[in-house]
Specification:
By secondary structure, the protein is an alpha/beta fold. The chain has 2 domains: about 5-80, Winged helix-like DNA-binding domain superfamily/Winged helix DNA-binding domain (Arc Repressor Mutant, subunit A), CATH 1.10.10; about 140-315, Rossmann fold (3-Layer(aba) Sandwich), CATH 3.40.50. Helix content is about 50%, strand content about 15%. It is built from 17 helices and 11 strands. The strands form 3 sheets. A 7-stranded mixed beta sheet has the order 5-4-3-6-7-11-10, with helices on both faces. A hairpin with a 2-residue loop joins strand 10 (about 300-305) and strand 11 (about 310-315). Helix 1 (about 5-15) packs across helix 4 (about 40-55), helix 1 (about 5-15) packs across helix 6 (about 80-90) and helix 6 crosses helix 11. The structure holds S-adenosylmethionine.
Length: about 325
């Protein structure tokens, strides 16, 4: 576990060298991969031997082939994890270098390490901003699947608050004719979101509104979704978002949160690792069922359903 950083950086290096995409073109030896990636053959051999020992790539008959895990690192894989690996081995790797002080003070490491809050910094660093948006879009494909199998009859409008580049909403609108939607997010996301909406042929049913969810959000929709938003924020900030949202809803509007629910007990749980990551980056947190109920109740909502990945609430 203490060598976990070697795994993070090895995956990041393989992606930066373009090795997953090269293997997709055709399996080949580590020396040929190193030549194609303009890298050192011995170091690439040792990198891929290590990753293969973890199930990421496999070496057979002198050639490197994909496994189900290494395929996820290809830039064209559905829900590709390539952008996640860039973010975790790059920006966030340095964030965690300031980890100890976060545990001493309870304050996020990111602003201390980078000199600005995370989303402000992303606005000033478009390359990292695009990697972050791509990573969120890939994750939203998985998270947003929870929306697709719901019954949308009787619902005519959806606003996805902090909807990023629109991945989840675009998939929902593509599947559900008659539904209109709005992606609400920061101005820095506008261009990529509009391009995605246009590429999906949804300009007549899907719009993008830029704004700040601490100030005002579009009002009156039947359903409001918040996917991976409240976990970015501490209780005070998350309450502020809910208090901004509450007056924008009609008495019959529904709130759908696509969020993790931390399980009690000692068992391994991705949500517990991400909880620390949210603390480091934004001072945010993953929440247990009782913490979700408390937060929503303080924001003026009743929880009507809660399960891992999906919380439904309605305005009181
Ligand atoms: C963790 S991402 C989640 C994106 C998307 N909902 C998903 O599930 O992948 C958080 C999103 O919140 C947006 N965001 C951050 N601060 C915001 C603010 N003050 N107002 C509106 N959107 C904001 C970010 O730009 C980003 O797209």
């Amino acid at each position: 576990m203490m060598l976990g950083f070697t795994v993070t950086q090895s995956i990041g290096a393989a992606v930066r060298l373009g090795i997953p995409d090269l293997v997709s073109q055709r399996p080949r030896s580590t020396s040929k991969l190193a030549a194609a990636a303009d890298a050192d053959p011995d170091a690439v051999h040792r990198l891929l031997r290590t990753l293969a020992s973890l199930g990421i790539f496999t070496e057979e008959g002198g050639s490197i082939h994909h496994t189900s895990m290494s395929e996820l690192l290809c830039s064209t894989a559905p829900a590709s994890l390539a952008s996640h690996s860039l973010i975790f081995s790059g920006v966030h790797y340095r964030t965690w270098g300031g980890g100890l002080e976060t545990f001493q003070t309870g304050e996020a490491a990111f602003p201390r390490v980078y000199g600005a809050p995370f989303f402000d910094w992303l606005a000033e660093h478009p390359t990292e901003g695009s990697s972050f948006n791509a990573a969120m879009a890939a994750g939203a494909t998985v998270r947003g699947a929870r929306l697709l199998d719901r019954d949308w009859s009787g619902v005519s409008s959806v606003v996805d608050i902090g909807g990023g580049t629109g991945t989840a909403l675009i998939r929902l609108l593509t599947k559900t004719s008659g539904l209109v939607g709005t992606v609400f997010d920061l101005p820095q996301v506008r261009q990529e979101a509009l391009a995605a909406i246009e590429a999906a042929g949804l300009t007549d049913r899907c719009s993008f509104i830029a704004g700040d969810f601490f100030t005002e959000v579009p009002s009156g929709a039947d359903v409001f979704t918040l996917s991976n938003i409240l976990h970015d924020w501490d209780d005070e900030s998350a309450s502020r978002i809910l208090r901004t949202l509450r007056p924008a809803m009609t008495p019959l509007s529904k709130l759908l949160l696509l969020e993790r629910v931390v399980e009690p007990g000692n068992q391994p749980d991705e949500a517990k690792l991400l909880d620390l990551h949210m603390l480091m980056v934004l001072g945010g947190k993953e929440r247990s069922e009782s913490e979700w109920r408390d937060l929503l109740s303080r924001g003026g909502f009743d929880v009507t359903h809660i399960e891992a990945g999906l919380i439904e609430a309605r305005p009181v």
